[in-house]
Amino acid sequence: MRWRLECAALALALACLAGAAHAAVGGRLFVSSEKDNAIAIVDAAKLEVTASPVVCKRPRHMQLSPDRKLLYIACGNDQAVAVWDVAANKVVARLDVGEDPEMFDLSPDGRMLYASNEEDSALTAYDLAGRKKAFSVHVGGEPEGVKVSPDGKLVYVTSEVAGVVHVIDVAGRKIVKNIAVGKRPRRLLLVGGELWVTNELDGGVSLIRVADHTVQGRIDFLPPGMRSEDVTPVGMALSPDGKTAYVGLGRANHVAVVDTATHKVKGYVLVGRRAWGLAVSRDGSRLYVANGLSDDLTVVDTAAMKGIRTLRVGRVPHTVVVDE
């Protein structure tokens, strides 16, 4: 009898701990909606949309400032980046970053913003402190992914048309290397000493060694029952401990879960239609996936590797940002 009581007490304690861990997820999510010209603001604890303010024409990529007080929003059809005050819940400025901005990244000190201009085949560097363009570099056709090196000295930019990653020296304001990768490279993720590049039209990720900017290998994806032509990887996210990478597989409607040390695929998670934008909660317990063709957000339990909730977040959601 005593043994049964002890087991029951242990089970109750474990359940309470699990519940506490689940309840610890809080804060807000911001999800950009390209067709609604708005961002959905989601209560992360309740998993409810609390507001959907209109911000600009065709909001796409978003990123928080290092102090988390400002949310920068790429406005594709406004030729600008909107600046959203997180506390005041309103747009407080618009930055002229050139034609058709899609993706961008901030320098580590938060003083510079680097945006890809899809129609102009350019990377624009914008001085946030001085509120002015600093310089522009011509790149290959349809640039998209942008990633700044941890020391702020280099900017990596993908060209979908050229099939390369450009390496731009910030001080010299010029391309210093072009790295050939796969077909239609889209997004970038720094994983330790590697730069991961999603190749939308050949179903995999190229692995670039940052030390010498050479391609060291690739990871291929094919969820069970899917056709290879439907595997169109775009967005990626990294767990807080750096041990797991998540890759959105686009029209395959799955997310690949990858061990970053071994480069092995641990499994696939079924989500919504055209999974692109990904973000991870600060504690790593949840993955949020924006599904561009089903107009919703899938909430994934990362431990169980399965979706636990789906939220309607507006038409053609693009990017998810976690504010905890």
UniProtKB/TrEMBL annotation:
Its domain of life reads: Bacteria
Q: Which organism is it from?
A: Ramlibacter ginsenosidimutans
* Signal peptide extent: 1-23
Parts forming coiled coils = none
Q: Which UniProt keywords apply?
A: Signal
Recorded hits in InterPro entries, A to Z, give:
Host-pathogen_enzymatic-act, N2O_reductase_N, PQQ_b_propeller, WD40/YVTN_repeat-like_dom_sf, YNCE-like_beta-prop, YVTN_b-propeller_repeat
Task: Supply the PANTHER family for this chain.
Answer: DIHYDRO-HEME D1 DEHYDROGENASE (PTHR47197:SF3), PROTEIN NIRF (PTHR47197)
Q: What protein does this entry describe?
A: PQQ-dependent catabolism-associated beta-propeller protein
Q: Where in this chain does the record put each YNCE-like beta-propeller domain?
A: 78-187
